[in-house]
Amino acid sequence: TLLKDVDYVMALEVETVSCRTTKGEIIVEVHRDWAKHGAERFLHLVQRGYFEGIGFFRKNHWIIQFGAVQHPQTGKRKKFSGMKTIPDDPPTDCGGECTKNRLWDGALAFAGGGKDSRSDQVFFVHHLGHQPIGGELWETPIGNVTHGMDVLKNIYGGYGESVNQVKIFQRGDDYLKEFPLLDYMLECNIIQKDLWSNLFLRGNSYGSTGTYDDYSPIFTMLPQVFIYVGCICTCLVSLCVYAVRKRNGLRKSQ
Fold first, then answer.
1. How many other CB atoms sit within 10 Å of the CB of residue 208?
2. pTM recorded for the entire structure
3. Within a 10 A sphere around the Cβ of 119, how many other Cβ atoms?
4. What is the Cα–Cα distance from 15 to 121, expressed in whole angstroms?
């Protein structure tokens, strides 16, 4: 089941995210235990539909970057304007599964440009080679591709570094139309586990520190909880009525 159009994430150490691209599907495991701030920000962006129709505007020999806001003044993109940056996460060895300060093929991390600079742009490593990627403050891994590395490698990279990010912010999709072969992230969704684990959710509008509108997500679940409880109560009442009527019928027959 895909979790979509909600304002919460499950308070689990690892979330599975399905991303559909113009070249196929990518499955990513996002780890709070590797990078709490980064993982929560990414998951909240997924929930809010931020990665719907986002171009893979940068692909060099090592990474594929996406996430630049393409509609800053209109529609659903407007609510992302003024998004605050999040604190850096400390270097991680991924619970003994990776080397600190070094990424790997399939790693997912935020792009940045200084201390506490992470916001909305992320990248996949598609071919690390001998590049020392992962040593910057913002490059703590937040996840890993578990399915779809072939999809990543097939993302069009002929434009290299020529797509101008400033012009993306200024002109949006009109500018990206100048790059007709560009591939896109069509949508990403959290793969939901079950209802009852969702009762222990936590989150906020943009995820992690440096955000606004913190709340207890249990309240966002109340309508669904009431529906489930109502159904259960209705079934129990119906069974009780049936049992009473059956018992009364037996008494009359005697």
1. 23
2. 0.72
3. 22
4. 19
Give the span between the Cα atoms of 125 and 107, in whole angstroms: 5
Q: Answer for the pair 118, 36: CB distance below 8 angstroms, yes or no.
A: no
Instruction: Give pLDDT tens digits for 120-151.
Output: 999 999 998 878 899 999 999 999 999 999 99
Residue 81 has pLDDT above 90, yes or no: no
Distance CA(119)–CA(112), nearest Å, equals 8
The percentage of residues in the chain with a pLDDT greater than 90, rounded to a whole number, is: 52
Q: Is 95 helix (H, G, I), strand (E, B) or coil?
A: helix
Residue 82 structure tokens: 């003024």
Rounded Cα–Cα distance for residues 164 and 249 (Å): 80
Q: How far apart are CA 12 and CA 191, in angstroms?
A: 12
The candidate with the shortest Cα–Cα distance to 112, out of 144, 76, 85, 150, is 85
Name which of 55, 53, 58 is nearest 77 in CA terms. Answer: 53
